[in-house]
Amino acid sequence: AVGEKRVFEPFDKEAFKKEILNNIKYLFRKTPETASQQEIFQAVAYASKDMIIDEWLNAHKEYEKQDAKTVYYLSMEFLMGRALGNNLINLCCYKEVAEVLQEMGLDINVVEDQEPDAALGNGGLGRLAACFIESLSTLNYPAYGCTIRYKYGMFKQQIVNGEQVEIPDDWLKNGNPFEIKRPEYSQEIKFGGYVRIEYNEKLGRNIYIQDGYQSVMAVPYDLPVVGYNNGIVNSLRIWDAEPLVQFNLDSFDKGDYQKAVEQENLAKSIVEVLYPNDNHYSGKELRLKQQYFFVSASLQQVIKKFKATHDDIHQLPDKVVFQLNDTHPTVTVPELMRILIDEENLEWDDAWDITSRCCAYTNHTIMAEALEKWPVDLFMRLLPRVYQIVEEINRRFLIQVEEKYPNQYDKIRNMAILYEGQVRMANMAIIAGFSVNGVARLHTQILEERELHDFYEMMPEKFNNKTNGITQRRFLLHANPLLAQWVTDKLGTDEWITNLPLLKGLAPLADDSKARKEFQEIKYQNKLRLAKYIKEHNGIDINPDSIFDVQVKRLHEYKRQLMNIMHIMYLYNQLKDNPDMKFYPTTFIFGAKAAAGYKTAKQTIKLINSVADVINNDSAVNDKMKVVFIENYCVSNAEIIFAASNVSEQISTASKEASGTGNMKFMLNGAITLGTMDGANVEIVEEVGSENAFIFGMSSDEVMGYEANGGYNPREIYEQDADIHRVMDQMVDGTYSNGDTETFRELFNSLINQDVYFILKDFRSYAEAREKINEAYRDSKSWNRMAILNTACSGKFSSDRTIEEYVRDIWHLKKVFVR
Ligand code: 26V
Q1: Ligand 1 atom 14: residue of nearest CA
Q2: Is 330 in the pocket of ligand 1 (CB under 6 A)?
Q3: Do domains 68-82+117-466+804-811 and 472-797 have the same CATH topology?
């Protein structure tokens, strides 16, 4: 068993049990019989934290001793999910703790279910950060994740009358057993005011002083990020905001009631809530405040830490690298310049050299509406000194452009940081940093050839690809214990836990009938587990023998949940018309949150639920199809969903999905991809073979070809294709809206007038692929063969591989070993 492999101290069950009992007693003055499940969870969590602390201290002692270079992964989002189960897994004592709890009459699954998800993120970008930070620990690399300690994380979703309702996520209401407050590292953050210029004799130049500002104190909390069985624990540093006056009780400020209230409000507002937008920029001042808040706090602390043991700031790039997770933390660039120039008294060229060599940028989307462009007046007002530096960066860059491309105004139009009254954050990140990467091969290629072509032409050496990955510790070992055990048994080793390409060794089993039966039985057990979850949470009975066809991800038009549900409407028509039609029973499962202000997305959720309502209550088709919308899709229920899926819907309009990472989690768990040639799907097909996936739809080149010509005419398809016509009409004839013709009118209009995401255009090809899938599932031998091959070929998609590439090409870290 895994736990016996602990490389350090063997796990002491009796001691652990005693610790849990002590915690129940001293934290809550209770006994196991009288304690609530939540209290039990806390008691177990604190007991596990005690195991972590020594390794946490040790690892950092070793980092200091070796003066190891550290990556700071700066991200507005870390979608961590639950910590307890994963920590126990990585401490290699999950099974032992389960046994201890069982001896106490407790069920580890129930205990784990008491923990709220740490939902400090929206979707793909935030979950990627969480996988990366876990892989960094597992691979022995010194790293910090830096982000905000939002009081409210991603909202919880309820479906009421088919519509999404957002419930605040008060994730800290019972406290957080794993976090440790570090007030000694508090940093002051200044907003607003004006810049005073003074001549400084000693430096022989002007100096710049921000005056008349408001400030807050940034106070860090650390969460442990436990590596797998290696004694390494890194930190996720989450910054909280507190009013400054609390820290200066003896200063003259203490009587300034007005100021105290202002600071209190500023502090509260900054960390109040995660913006629930995914892929949509809105230009809110508070968002820029959040960005500067956590960036400035992180940088100030890094510089202080560096200076405590080094006297030459020029050496900073040898010890520190900042990875910017999308443009959200790009204010890192001018803030680092400000610290180096105003506080460390460096000259511009020196400061620029250091800044450039410390910063690297990852692009996660080409969707135009996600590009961050701050109005100059807002930026200038909030960050007056930082803005001056942005202007100077821009001025110097434009001189270079002018030199290289004289009189080519389009180059300036595309590449300037300041343009038409806006600060373009992506341009700043690209210009300043030494690395720009996309997140899948196709995505990087589109960046180089199209979106960022001028930059690529001017500085090709900065561009590189880092295809995303996921951590198998969470998405196989923890989420799918049955399959994990099977894999270990078949490979005769559990080394796949830290070396995922070893799964390749399973490939021969695809042709072994006994292995296929076992694989199928495991999938079946996982389908029962999901069916139970759906029964408990949605009150719907589903048939575990049906195909589980699943699309779970944020709701966005380009991801085309609408195409999926329209195809289900089409199938329903077919089944009603031909009750004897050949059709393998299928359960269509959705999970998706919509940004609170995204109307089309919310209408799509309503349509899915309305169609589900009609179909699930039609006894004529119920033994053939059901539609389930799983409320509140999040990391913890995702773990159950991936394990239980047969079909992985990855149906974005080609060129729009930068990578996708859900696609990898499905593949790892033996689901077959039904997808377009988009994002990482391309590489998934490359690994598993096109005969083991179902690919349909236009290529990215075709899509971009149409786009260059102003789109296509969807009305033609509507007029010519009777099936599509019928489905479209059913959206506005009341079939799914109790006779109301307006509920889905906007969806109808957007399709017939422009269909920006080519839903009608790809519909037939999607329908064919789905028909093939339905047919293929009948042949359980070939289906399970494909399923095993998907798991076997998923080795590339470990975030361990991705992190090793970042280390090799960008970060240049050294592994640190303890003991
Ligand atoms: C963008 C914005 C824009 C400004 C307002 C708030 C906000 C919040 C989040 C985002 C992130 C959008 C980008 C994103 O999540 N991209 C996804 O990144 C995944 C990891 O690389 C990738 O797998 C997905 O394909 C990509 O959509």
Answers
A1: 125
A2: no
A3: yes
Q: Which two tokens stand for residue 414?
A: 């595309």
| Of 670, 642, 743, 651, nearest in space to 521 by CA | 670
- Homologous superfamily assigned to 472-797: Glycogen Phosphorylase B; (3.40.50.2000)
Cβ burial, residue 426 (10 Å; 0-12/13-18/19+): buried
pLDDT computed for residue 547 by the predictor: 99
- Give 610 Cα–ligand 1 centroid separation in angstroms: 28
Pocket flag, ligand 1, residue 279 (CB < 6 Å): yes
The class (CATH top level) of 68-82+117-466+804-811 is alpha beta
CB atoms within 10 A of CB 619: 7
CA 350 to chain centre: 35
Which of 73, 364, 665 has the most ligand 1 atoms within 8 A of CB, as the residue to mutate? 364
Q: What was the pLDDT predicted at 288?
A: 98
d(CA 799, CA 807): 12
Whether ligand 1 lies within 6 angstroms of the CB of 124 is answered as yes
Query: For residue 2, what pLDDT is reported?
Result: 43
What is the bridge-based pairing of β-strands 547-552 and 647-650? Answer: parallel
Q: What's CA 343's distance to the chain center, in Å?
A: 35
What residues are labeled active site?
364, 553-554, 559, 661, 665
Residue nearest to atom 1 of ligand 1 (CA): 279
The one-character DSSP state at 763 is H
Cβ–ligand 1 contact at 123 (below 6 Å): yes
> Can you name the residues that pair with 591 across neighbouring β-strands?
552
370 CB near ligand 1 (under 6 Å): yes
Nearest CA to ligand 1 atom 2: 279
- The verdict on the CB of residue 275 being under 6 Å from ligand 1 is yes
- The two beta strands, 359-362 and 435-438, are parallel
Phi, psi of 144 (to 5 degrees): -125, 140
Nearest CA to ligand 1 atom 6: 277
- State the Cα–Cα distance between residues 464 and 806, nearest whole angstrom: 10
pLDDT at 252: 56
pLDDT digits (tens, 9 = 90+) for 152-164: 999 999 999 999 9
CA atoms within 13 A on the CB side of 722: 2
Tens of pLDDT, residues 559-606:
999 999 999 999 999 999 999 999 999 999 999 999 999 999 999 999
pLDDT < 50 positions in the chain: 1-3
**What ipTM was predicted for this assembly?**
0.95
Q: Where are the domains of the chain?
A: 1-66+85-115, 68-82+117-466+804-811, 472-797
Element (H or E) spanning 753, and its range? helix 745-753
Give the phi and the psi of residue 590 in degrees, each rounded to 5.
-120, 150
Residue 440 Cα to ligand 1 middle (Å):
14
Beta strands in 561-652 (DSSP E): 586-591, 625-629, 647-650
Q: Is the CB of 291 under 6 A from ligand 1?
A: no
Protein residue with its CA nearest to atom 9 in ligand 1:
278
Q: Which residue among 125, 330, 424, 802 has the greatest number of ligand 1 atoms within 8 angstroms of its CB, and so is best to mutate?
A: 125
Whether ligand 1 lies within 6 angstroms of the CB of 277 is answered as yes
Q: Residue 701 Cα, ligand 1 centroid: separation in angstroms? A: 22
> What is the rounded CA–CA span in Å between residue 342 and residue 207?
7
Please tell me the distance between residue 282's alpha carbon and the centre of ligand 1 in angstroms. 14
Three-point CA angle 237, 240, 244, nearest 5°: 130
Query: 268: which residues sit within 8 A by CB, 6+ positions away?
Result: 241
Q: Which residues contact 83 (CB under 8 A, 6 or more apart)?
A: 45, 115, 118, 178, 223
pLDDT of residue 134: 99
Measured distance CA(119)–CA(504) in Å, rounded: 33
For CA atoms 791, 796, 799, 801, the dihedral sign is: positive
Residue 333 in contact with ligand 1 by CB distance below 6 A: no
